[in-house]
Design a protein that fits this description.
Distance between the termini: 56 Å
Strand order of the largest sheet: 1-3-2
Strand content: 5-15%
Largest sheet: 3 strands, parallel
Number of helices: 7
């Protein structure tokens, strides 16, 4: 549902490739070109990893540090990253992401590492949050532009007046 808002979901899991591929098919998630495993990831250089994280959407059999490495690589390639996790093994990636998201039923370590804790059992909360956040950001930007342009006129007038007046306006 959120893909229309410029959000590209990726799956990062510790489960093995067979289970991950089966679940992707069940939920109708497009795995893209191929599924990348933790072993393949371990053999990659930083440059290879940065290419891979942009083209692949499913990563399986990952350890906690590999999840963090993927999140960091995505951020280094210019993406804003939201990571959702609920286990101890998700804590490093939750901390590394721009926005760490967890659920109310998550382990304490995951909840402490997260920026947002979802209280509802639905991802539509995130979609509404993104839409509202973008509206607010747009309005703040609009207000700053408007304020800066009107203040520029005021400052220009004061500067002009100070050139001719014997006192400081």
């Amino acid at each position: 549902a959120m893909v229309g808002h410029g959000i590209k979901p990726k799956i990062l899991t510790g489960d093995n490739a067979v289970i991950t591929a089966k679940i992707c098919r069940e939920v109708d998630f497009d795995a893209g070109e191929h599924l990348v495993t933790g072993d393949q990831l371990a053999a990659m250089s930083e440059e290879e990893l940065q290419k891979t994280v942009n083209t692949c959407h499913v990563f399986a059999k990952l350890d906690p540090m590999q999840k963090e490495r993927i999140v960091t690589a995505l951020r280094q390639t210019g993406h804003v990253v939201g990571f959702m996790g609920d286990g101890i093994n998700d804590a490093p990636a939750l901390k590394a992401a721009d926005v760490g998201i967890s659920v109310d039923s998550a382990v304490d370590v995951a909840k402490e590492s997260a920026d947002i804790i979802l209280l509802e059992k639905s991802l539509t909360v995130l979609e509404h949050g993104v839409i509202e956040g973008r509206k607010i950001f747009f309005n703040i930007t609009k207000y700053i532009r408007m304020g800066a342009s009107s203040n520029f006129g005021n400052m220009f007038s004061v500067l002009g007046a100070s050139a001719f007046l014997p006192f400081l306006p």
